[in-house]
Design goal:
Layout (H helix, E strand, L loop, with lengths): L5 E5 L5 E10 L3 H7 L3 H7 L27 E7 L4 E8 L5 E4 L6 H4 L13 E11 L2 E14 L2 E14 L10 E4 L13 H7 L7 E5 L8 E5 L7 E9 L2 E2 L2 E5 L1 E4 L2 E4 L4 E5 L6 E4 H11 L2 E3 L2 E4 L10 E5 L2 E5 L1 H4 E4 L3 E4 L1 E5 L3 E3 L1 H4 L2 E6 L4 E7 L1
Parallel strand pairs: 4-9, 5-8, 17-26, 18-25
Antiparallel strand pairs: 1-2, 2-3, 2-11, 3-4, 3-7, 5-9, 6-7, 7-8, 10-11, 10-27, 12-28, 13-14, 14-17, 15-16, 15-21, 18-26, 19-20, 20-24, 21-22, 23-24, 27-28
Keywords: Aspartyl protease, Digestion, Disulfide bond, Hydrolase, Protease, Signal, Zymogen
Enzyme class: hydrolase
Organism: Sparus aurata
């Protein structure tokens, strides 16, 4: 069973309380489909489009045929009085909170926990419609208000979405819903994000939160609201100003392999996104990186020989005058059915996404007070 969230209080002059939500690293949709021998069929039916959630052109339409089959981390929150529990992806690339509801009969709702507003004494109806696209598919539903408890912090009158329909692919995801942690301007239907309410109601010590994703074990990953956890990083924090206060978007100066610029020449824009599993970039840049590390393209994956990981070069992201280096052990993923593939994926236009492959190596701090991202070596 999963430990409920816990609050860490340090004995300092001002007692500083940090709220921590443990994240479970569960089986990914890809792993489930591979086990059932269905992956090849599904990847054709639901091609991966990680940019869907960052592109307004995708904001209309009912069924987006897209998947991010490698998402693995989710934490437990509760909604309502008495509390109804849900597994959610803490997603810094979107801003809405939504969970499945009893009014949804999609396949994706039938194998997930569904919220029943009739059982909550604190629920208030709003009724405005909600429609969101992700790299994992889409959901449509409506809005309501209730108490949302995250890591023991009760956020009262939090607006959230209840799904009435969900894209087919979502039935293969472990998480029930998504808790968005980007800026309010990004929020569909103008719904105030959870962290904005935490700040407004003074429920967090500092207006920032931090994410640690463990590399190897199922346990240990954590989101810390209101501070940073020194147990999870080493060395100094590099503070990077946002280039746009909408997503957690920063400027990358270049990407090098063995000292040679292989991508992002002259700079590029990147979103630090816990809700995307890979490092994603424009096709030409990604295929260039993969060529330099010795990967070959196969069915949209970039494959490498599992025995050559130790000999493969580091890939270095140059950001704000600092080097953020990924060894092959960090950017190669092994599947028991399909061999080894890199964590660099094609994403579309000019925008990059620094997803979980990057965040596992670099503890990430999302600072709303100063509109900065902090990065430090994870431990």
């Amino acid at each position: 069973t999963m430990k409920w969230a816990f609050v860490v209080c340090a004995m300092v002059a001002l007692s500083e309380c940090l709220v921590q939500v443990p994240l479970e690293r569960g089986k990914t949709a890809r792993e489930l489909l591979e086990e059932q021998g269905l992956w090849d069929e599904y990847r054709l039916k639901f091609p991966y489009n990680p940019m869907a959630k960052f592109d307004n052109r995708f904001a209309v339409g009912t069924e987006s045929m897209t998947n991010d089959a490698d998402l693995a981390y989710y934490g437990i929150i509760s909604i309502g009085t008495p509390p109804q529990s849900f597994k959610v992806i803490f997603d810094t690339g979107s801003s809405n909170l939504w969970i499945p509801s009893i009014y949804c009969s999609s396949a994706a709702c039938n194998n997930h926990d569904k919220f029943n507003p009739g059982l909550s004494s604190t629920y208030r109806h709003n009724g405005s419609p909600l429609s969101i696209q992700y790299g994992t598919g889409s959901m449509t539903g409506f809005l309501g208000y209730d108490t949302v408890t995250v890591g023991g912090i009760a956020v009262r009158n939090q607006i959230f979405g209840m799904s009435q329909s969900e894209a087919t692919f979502m039935q293969y995801m472990r998480a029930d819903g998504i808790l968005g942690l980007a800026y309010p301007q990004l929020s569909a239907s103008g719904a105030t994000p959870v962290f904005d309410n935490m700040m407004k109601e003074g429920l967090v010590n500092q207006d920032l939160f931090s994410v640690y994703l463990s590399s190897n074990s199922q346990q240990g990953s954590v989101v810390t609201f209101g501070g940073t956890d020194p147990n999870h990083y080493t060395g100094s924090i590099t503070w990077i100003p946002l280039s746009r206060d909408l997503y957690w978007q920063i400027t990358v100066d270049s990407v090098t392999v063995n000292g040679q610029v292989v991508a992002c020449n002259g700079g590029c824009q990147a979103i630090v996104d816990t809700g995307t599993s890979l490092i994603v970039g424009p096709q030409s840049s990604i295929s260039n990186i993969n060529t330099y590390v010795g990967a070959s393209s196969q069915n949209g994956d970039y494959m490498v020989n599992c025995n050559s990981i130790a000999q493969m070069p580091d890939v270095t992201f140059h950001i704000h005058g600092q080097q953020f280096t990924l060894p092959a052990s960090a950017y190669v993923r092994q599947s028991q059915y399909y061999g080894c593939r890199t964590g660099f994926g094609n994403g579309g236009d000019s925008l990059w996404i620094l997803g979980d492959v990057f965040i596992r190596q670099y503890y990430s701090i999302f600072n709303r007070a100063q509109n900065m991202v902090g990065l430090a070596r994870a431990r």
